[in-house]
Design a protein that fits this description.
By secondary structure, the chain is α/β, with parallel strands linked by helices. The protein has helices at about 15-20, 40-55; strands at about 5, 25-30, 60-65, 70-75, 80-85, 95-100, 105-110. It has 2 helices and 7 strands. It has a 5-stranded mixed sheet with strand order 1-2-3-4-5, covered by helices on one side. A two-stranded antiparallel sheet has the order 6-7. Helix 1 packs parallel to helix 2.
Amino acid sequence: GKLGPLICYEVVFPGLAQEAARAGARALVTMTNDGWFGWTSGPRQHLVHGQLRAAENGLPLLRAANTGISVIVDRHGRNLGEIGLGESGFLVREVELGDVAGNRVAVLRGLSPGERVITMGAAMVLDGDVVEVMPTEVP
């Protein structure tokens, strides 16, 4: 699916996110360097702009900040996972699995419809690799 990139401070401007949504974006993505804010309320305020853009447009937001705060935000503006200011790491979400049918498994809790994840071989995926997107229909 299409992504709506918002580079750093662009997330502050509602019109840019709206344009991405109208163009068919399935998610908003923000890459930012909040280091110049230092240890102030600035990074948190910058994050809140992203949460607002997600909620306004009904789209999830992925925010990667080289100095934190990196988050996954759902389409309602709620944080689903966060790497704090000055921290590094990766985000993992717990899911509850249901019945298995062939090579498919039902996810009962922890993901919203339309969200996509890498479930196998994530450690082997390199930048630029093609990742197969499985159909989202329930068997």
